[in-house]
Amino acid sequence: MESSIFIVPNGTFIAELVAFVLVLLVVAKYLVPTVNRELQARQEAIRAQLAAADEAKAEAQLDEERRREALEEARMRAREIVEQAQRTAERLAADAHTRGEQEYERLLSSAQEQVRLARQRALEEAAQRLGEVVVDVVERIIGREMDAAAHADLIDAAVSALAGEPSVVES
Fold this sequence. Notes:
The chain is mostly helical. The chain has one domain (11-163). 87% of the residues lie in helices and 0% in strands. It has two helices and no strands.
């Protein structure tokens, strides 16, 4: 049996080495460029997705800022509407109060005028009735009828007495 020396390569080793180098060259020439293209395409897709994500994040931040501004503007507008409503309510209350006071004054004035007119009518009726009673009493006391001038003077004196005016009675 022949022994082989490990350090000296035999023909099988050389054939295996050649086959390995050939496979390595085929892999390097055909397979590595395809894998590299796929890796680069994948890297570009990842970069594009990251850029899109960054852009979406920036747009989301802008949208959030716009939303906050719109919300603050809506709050300010709501405050203005509430303040305007309060001013309107205060003005309407003041107008109603003024109209109420005016109506009160009108009713009070009307009532005072009615009282004054009723008092005047009562005084006139009392004066007329008093005049008739006085003439009737004078006629009974004197026993004769009074003339129209004396009757008018007597009624005027009674009316003046009722009104609180001093009068001079002619005899």
